[in-house]
Amino acid sequence: MTNNAMLQLLGLAARARKVISGEELVVKDIRSGNAKLVLLARDASANTSKKITDKCKYYNVEFHVFGDRYDLGHATGKEARVALAITDSGFAKKISSLLNEI
């Protein structure tokens, strides 16, 4: 599977309303235990990166650094997004396996 397939799957998850986007909403979802997987853009600021990764590590949520803010935003049909949380375990499992292949 390629980068393109990963972005298409991310778009499918977004259309199924299983994706939360935006830094504060993602942090809120991590705290509440709804986030199964978190995607962080490569070009996120140092402060945002640290905040998201620390929350993920503390609450034991898997996270990956993938693409840039425009890739993540375009895949979900929104403007540029720095952080995305996948709330469905099926989508999270498949996206995680694709990211581990890349």
> How many domains would you count in the coordinates?
1
Number of strands: 4
- Give the CATH superfamily: Ribosomal protein L30/S12
Q: Taking all residues together, what is the mean pLDDT?
A: 91
- CATH class designation: Alpha Beta
What order do the strands of the largest sheet run in, or round the barrel if closed? 1-4-2-3
CATH topology value: 60s Ribosomal Protein L30, Chain: A
Helix content: 55-70%
Largest sheet: 4 strands, mixed
Q: If you compute it from the alpha carbons, what radius of gyration comes out, rounded to the nearest whole angstrom?
A: 12 Å
Q: How many H/I helices?
A: 5
Low-confidence stretches: none
Give me the strand/helix succession. Answer: HEHEHEHEH
Question: What fraction of residues sit in β-strands?
Answer: 5-15%
Shape: globular
Structural class category:
alpha+beta
Q: In the CATH classification, which architecture applies?
A: 2-Layer Sandwich
From the N-terminal CA to the C-terminal CA, the straight-line distance is: 8 Å
